[in-house]
Amino acid sequence: MKTYPMTIDGKSVDTGRTLEIINPALGQPFAAVPVARPQDVDAAVAAARKAFPAWRATSAAERQAMLHALGAALEANMPELMDLITRETGKPLQGLNNVGAGMELGGSIAWTHVTADLPLEPEVIQDNEQARVEVHRKPLGVVASITPWNWPLMIAIWHIIPALRAGNTVVLKPSEYTPVATARFVELAQAVLPPGVLNVVIGGGDIGAALSQHPDINKIVFTGSTRTGKRIMENAAASLKRLTLELGGNDAGIVLPGADVQAIAPKLFGVAFHNNGQTCACLKRLYVHDSQYDAVCTELARLAKEVRVGDGLDPATELGPLQNRAQLDVVSTLAADAAANGGTILSGGKARAGQGYFFEPTIVAGLSNGARLVDEEQFGPILPVIRYSDVEQAIALANDNPNGLGGSVWSSDLALAAEVGKRLECGTVWINEHGAVQPDAPFGGVKQSGIGVEFGHHGLAEFTSIQTVKIMKN
């Protein structure tokens, strides 16, 4: 079994303690990583702090060239990294609608190159005979990145690349469930970046807490649960660290009357079930008008029964396992609660016998707001389909949730759909699509789905502070 190292100050670190990483398709370990100690967190932060002045002083062109080289390194090592992602997450190499490890690597490469080329030019507010007023964007210092297990490498890229582009240095803590591909990427990055610019420490919640409390961390960017995000916010308060928090989502979709059921059903299924529903911005609650409710349920159940579930290394597999046993238990509990409290299981509904953390793709009818499966984020391959009688009711039901990450409206009337969509309480709304993020458009949540945004100019700016320079001319 291969051990993948932590990297601090450009060097591989062995702590004397290791953690075995489970392949969720088999329920067995396939790799090992070192477990960080408190002194390793201090060493990583100190290395990043030491590297910051020189990294900040590099020109934008120099930093951009190195970031493009990181994108090239991702591409050159794509087969190895895809294999590691599939083994540690369970997601198929290609997957349903080609949303799998290949998409994760492709997205990582695209985000790296696009973000590298984002400008950070000074903004001129005033330039006349009295004065010139400029707004400059300056790097913050050391950024701590804490990433989840569902898209481990791609979300790390979402955090790391804008931080580096803005002139910050980084200490990364991947999920202890899925650290392997990320640790390998950081190892590869040392051939491109100066020592200390990008470091990785591996461990559980104690290591995340040590980072979020560390006095020499200037900003934390975190993707994960709302509960953990609140703890990070509490830990960051003592030193008023900057925060970007992309937290839980329980995204609603509304199918408006008259939509083409046969046309949209495969899309609805894909945006709800890709990566086995383990995506923050998956469709997680679907509201359908009375007139088409039965037809949508029937078609989604058919698709759920036909989708190919198995080991992600099998090229024929469309959906893999849940990533970990705890998440399988969450989904199983919600399915059982739905069946016991008025829900009708139209497909699936239970864990699959045998090895691995597999759950049958599941469509549930007959529930509404107030049911646990509707109110709570399931983060798995189970979708409640909820009946509504008029659009105002659908909007009210969709907004009746503490989360507000994404939402969608499905209709052949694009103008009407857009108007309905703008009334949803979410950071991003899609029309006839769901969860389609891109590197040049801001993405973030409202309500308890987070603080701040990622991607594009708006996301890049969150890794900087503003300095206003006023030059008097007379």
UniProtKB/TrEMBL annotation:
Keyword Oxidoreductase assigned: yes
Alphabetized PROSITE patterns for the sequence: ALDEHYDE_DEHYDR_CYS, ALDEHYDE_DEHYDR_GLU
EC numbers on record: 1.2.1.3
InterPro entries cross-referenced by the UniProt entry: Ald_DH/histidinol_DH, Ald_DH_C, Ald_DH_CS_CYS, Ald_DH_CS_GLU, Ald_DH_N, Aldehyde_DH_dom, LUC3-like
Catalysed reactions listed for this entry: an aldehyde + NAD(+) + H2O = a carboxylate + NADH + 2 H(+)
One Gene Ontology term of the molecular function aspect: aldehyde dehydrogenase (NAD+) activity
Enzyme type, top EC level: oxidoreductase
Domain (Aldehyde dehydrogenase): residue spans on this chain: 16-469
Matching Gene3D superfamilies: Aldehyde Dehydrogenase, Chain A, domain 1, Aldehyde Dehydrogenase, Chain A, domain 2
Annotated catalytic residues: 246
Transmembrane region(s): none
Keywords for the protein's UniProt record, in alphabetical order: Oxidoreductase
Domain of life: Bacteria
Record family assignment: Belongs to the aldehyde dehydrogenase family.
Name of the protein this chain belongs to: aldehyde dehydrogenase (NAD(+))
Natural source organism: Duganella radicis
